[in-house]
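Worked Example 4.2. Read the sequence first, then its structure tokens.
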Amino acid sequence: METADKKKRPVIISEVSRTTPENGKFPFVMMNFSQAQCNVNSFMKSDSSLDLEVKGWQKGRPSFDLQVDTPHLSYVNTDYEDKYYTTYVAIRDKTTGKTRLFESMDVLLKPKVEPPPSTNPVLLKPEDEQDREEMKKTLVKAFGQSKGKRYYDQKDQFEVNAEDTVARVQKAVADVDVDTMAKREIAVVNIVPPRDETANRADMFYRVEHFLEENEMQQMIEACTEVLQEYNSVEAIEKGIESKEFSHLGAYFLKKLLDQAVLPDAKAALVLYLDSIIKFSRLRPHEIAKGHKHLPSYLPKSMKSRLLREFSADKIVTQELRDKAICYTIVLSLILNNFSLEISLLSESMKVKHRHLKQLVMMIGAHVEVDAASSQPKIVLKNSLTNFNVNYVAKRRN
């Protein structure tokens, strides 16, 4: 009882030391290893050495190369940087009760490993793509599933003689340069948003700067402020859904912004970007062909151009670009909703088959789980990304 009644001593901060290029102070370095936590006691007892080379200052933070040599492995720092949190080390004087705070930096170290050169003569032999394809075809036809055999049978059946095709085209269109057409490359669409593969936290895989540049984010914040001034109540936003000014998912996040005393800048920009992607995915081909005319009126001109550039190819939307819009919508929703999203919310705004949705969710590194409270499926982004194998085929149950 005496311990419980004893008054706690207040925390007195006597000094806060920050790292700036002007004062030239170097912060505390908090080392973290990518494969395990740092055991300070074992590290201090081991015969290890540090090599630190400061390269300069970038955005008010020191830029440096760090190498740690241990008896077993050498480690080097990665490009990981926490842009949203500032960490301090607290040092308390027990005599005076005063506490000093010193700014620190989290550094993620990865092993410095160079694999030895291979001595396998098969691997050293130059690889012929045509021979490899023929070998794969032979193995599938001999030992593969019926689906794989059927694929190669259809491929052989519809295979066209290249020389005959060239002759027909030259005869039909004499002015076309066939060699130029044959060399033309097909653009590959990356449907997954940019992300930080080295991160080890859900809030660091996908960040605001992966989606919007600084000037675009400022324009979207101003646009969102104007939208919320016009639609300043739940009833007004509901009317916006009826007039097709907003999607159901975009309206869901706009209602959340109404409850905020201070409008969060990053979330405000991402909410409008998410809603504009959904509305763009609903446009018909003849509407997309008209460019900016059918895009949301509240969008800045630069963002309208970005939508056409990111989610269409010469104002044509392919299946890959539709999947890209879905992936971007899912990731933005996860960022805005604490990395969890009920599938029913997404289904109200975008039509996608459940099996295909699960594949897209796995491609962005998230999981599909069943909520324990509501028993409804939801998408969750955890502290580790999932691996997705396009060629995986589930085994049939007996």
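Now turn to a second chain, presented in exactly the same format:
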Amino acid sequence: MAALRVAVVGAGAAGLCASRFLAAQPDVFHHDVFEMASNVGGLWVYTDQTTKDSYGHDVHTSMYEHLCTNFPKEVMGFPDFPFSDKLPSFISHRDVRAYLEDYAKAFDLVKYVKFNTIVQSVMPSKDNAKTPWRVCVKQLATNKEEVLTYDAVVVCNGHYSKPIIPSIPGANTFHGKILHSHYYRTPDGFRDQTVVCLGAGPSGTDIALELAPYVKRVILSSNDEPFTCTMPSNLEQLAGIESIENGTIAFKDGEKRMADVVMLCTGYEYVYPFLAPECGIEVKHRMRVTPIYKHLLHVHRPSLVLVGLPQLVPPFVVFHYQVQYALKVLQGFTKLPTVEGRLADEESEIRMRLDMGLKPHQAHQMGGLLAGYLEDLADLAGVEPFPSVKYAILMESYFKMKQDLMNYKKYNYRIIDEDDYSVTEP
């Protein structure tokens, strides 16, 4: 049987993970990885640039200078490739980039990567799920285009590059500056100002705390329940923004404040500009990809694999299990349900989240559903499940974050064995 030809879009963490497991079976898979940058690492490659890269494309990364991970390294890394024990539990983006470069070196992956190459389009050759895919790529340095055919396409382009810009009544009258957190790098340009951070997710809380020592006041604006833990004395929590009039921000709880800056920490859209309409993938509510089975496989064309859709997860761990399951499917070792069964499974997933009180745009949100999801993938792929001790660390870290947002990243965790771990307090 001829080897399956596989195209991987992106050489960030997900793309490297896909390449690692594809390369492990050279008699089964022949693969290429297409990366528009000149290095591996994707999102984790920091740059001071915020708008366009040297080729005129939008800057992909949303990293800011002092970003520190919000998951401890003990649970964040690929399950069989741990971070160095010399590092603290919560590490810088530079440490993560070095880790991914070590991962690529350990599995000799760079030789598969076509750098400075952008995927222009992905299109099925024929209206048949078993036929190869046509992938058009362009070398950025020469503008040379090439059309290649593959038996499968593994999409690993990430989903932290296209900011969601909410519509705020009166925003056009604002006398100050409105920007998305995607364009934030350092607190230096915000000294002595009043900054409203709209959104209290990981980015909103992290940036608000980082700004607090530099600014006059920082307002954390969110429709979620406010944090009850200790906060900086110049940080105020208010409801979401209702409207803006000149320099005044009106909040949904009736409060009004003057501000110099509105920082939109409002998340990112899922975008696949290279997937032709014939692929049949649709993004609804900016963040729900459909039709998709197991948050991973195209329902009607399972040889189109979209890695990394789940949210509120340690991403490298999810990539590790998603990729191994997807490759078992491509090899035919794991039998899929019928198309009707896959559609029913997708509907069940979204219905479960709606019943939990989540919104349609949170269709891929995991949170407390993560354990079951990873267990399911590991079972289907026939691989070792995610260790229970790491789940325990993940949950303890989460509760510490809710209880002490300012200090939870100062704790250090150490795995003792498959059942036990220790915690060192700051």
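Notes for the reader: The helical segments are 13-23, 73-76, 93-106, 202-211, 315-331, 339-355, 370-381, 388-403. DSSP finds eight helices and 24 strands in the chain.
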